[in-house]
Recover the amino acids of this structure.
């Protein structure tokens, strides 16, 4: 298998921030001697260099599908990166202190793309469930051309920053982008502001249109709303009113902050 | 550079986010477009020769954030190698059957970056925190990790 080595070496040595770095002892494959190497973790790739200022890495360990565990070794503070296959090699590494070992074990065991994707999906689900629980809004969808999940909701919706509620949960990690560089917002212009309003039920400023399922019948939307399930139409209306005011206020705060941070 | 080839091969055989036979060329002088089975698995792009069983795979090392991904002509897109953005001939070029297929690939590749995932995670974390006042990463024990802090990563 050919690997894009120059590209990898560039990635390893460029100034993009590392998720962890430091000296570790690496046990040789055939011989059990340990060699001190400079390790750099970026994303799901663990590079190792002969020296801290070496121009390119000696090697890289791709961390998908691995287990990181402590191991018994004559060497102190040793841990292992183990892969699933029968013929797979186990990488035995040793840190220089208990703290360093713990830090590495933690960061390596959570480095995989798979793990990150799981966490993102989980958070995305949580956010969607919370949005559903607020009858007043959050039915926004995003333009397919933007950095948002390109899930066509099929309806003209208010383009809020809150993620859309797709009818089918996404199979892939289609996620929103948040530029976390302070002071700069890298969002495309089409996700700012609202596309339009169909209904103005609550009387709160800039009320969002109701999501599709709620247009069909009065109670169907609240069936999944968890905490917002209403016992009677009047309770529902009251909760509806209450939540929508809160959401509208949050959204305003949010947009003000955004406007304030734009250059 | 040494790498864990066995694991990469195993990764290449896993279910892909996207897979298709596309015509592509590699960054080499005189390289022509050839039909290859292209597979996107996590943040790695593999390609296989279609007449042989999984031989000659070349991952693009999933460093999209360092690479230029651009749509050239309609139905075609290219990936410039990290570090070689100045050199236009150092590109992987892909020609899709339809414009729609091309756009799907560009979108899938854009979202296949680790950095994209990280930014998404930070975004959702922030949103949930704003709504609930609680940090959703605490349950995972990763709230203190530097890589998830706002403003921690610049591109």
């Amino acid at each position: 298998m050919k690997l894009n080595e120059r590209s990898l070496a560039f990635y390893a040595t460029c100034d993009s921030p590392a998720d962890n770095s430091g000296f570790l002892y690496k046990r040789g494959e055939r011989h059990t001697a340990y060699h001190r190497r400079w390790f750099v973790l970026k994303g799901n790739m663990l590079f190792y260099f002969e020296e801290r200022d070496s121009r390119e890495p000696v090697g890289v360990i791709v961390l998908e599908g691995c287990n990181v565990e402590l191991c018994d070794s004559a060497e102190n503070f040793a841990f292992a990166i183990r892969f699933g296959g029968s013929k797979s090699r186990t990488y035995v590494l040793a840190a220089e202190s208990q703290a360093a070992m713990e830090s590495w074990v933690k960061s390596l065991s959570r480095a995989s793309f798979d793990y990150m994707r799981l966490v993102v999906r989980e958070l995305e689900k949580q956010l969607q469930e919370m949005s559903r629980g607020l009858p007043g809004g959050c039915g926004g969808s995003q333009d397919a051309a933007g950095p948002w999940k390109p899930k066509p909701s099929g309806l003209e919706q208010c383009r809020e920053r809150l993620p859309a509620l797709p009818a089918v949960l996404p199979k892939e990690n289609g996620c929103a982008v948040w530029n976390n560089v302070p002071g700069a917002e890298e969002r495309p212009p089409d996700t700012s502001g609202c596309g339009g309003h169909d209904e103005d039920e609550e009387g709160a400023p800039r009320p969002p249109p109701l999501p599709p399922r709620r247009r069909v019948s009065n109670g169907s939307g609240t069936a999944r709303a968890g905490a917002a399930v209403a016992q009677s139409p009047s309770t529902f209306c009251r909760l509806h009113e209450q939540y929508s005011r809160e959401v509208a206020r949050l959204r305003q705060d949010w947009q003000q902050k955004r406007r304030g941070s734009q250059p | 550079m040494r790498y864990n080839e066995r694991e990469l091969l195993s990764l290449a055989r896993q279910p892909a986010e996207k897979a298709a036979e596309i015509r592509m060329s590699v960054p080499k002088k005189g390289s022509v477009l050839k039909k290859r089975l292209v597979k996107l698995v996590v943040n790695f792009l593999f390609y296989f020769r279609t007449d042989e069983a999984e031989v000659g795979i070349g991952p693009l090392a999933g460093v999209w954030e360092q690479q230029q991904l651009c749509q050239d002509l309609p139905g075609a897109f290219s990936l410039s190698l990290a570090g070689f953005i100045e050199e236009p001939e150092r590109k992987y070029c892909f020609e899709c059957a339809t414009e729609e297929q091309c756009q799907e690939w560009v979108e899938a590749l854009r979202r296949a970056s680790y950095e994209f995932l990280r930014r998404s995670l930070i975004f959702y974390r922030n949103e949930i925190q704003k709504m609930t006042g609680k940090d959703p990463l605490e349950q995972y024990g990763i709230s203190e990790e530097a890589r998830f802090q706002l403003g921690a990563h610049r591109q």
In short: Residues 10 and 205 of chain A are 51 Å apart (CA to CA). Helices of chain A lie at 5-13, 98-109, 113-132, 212-216, 233-261.
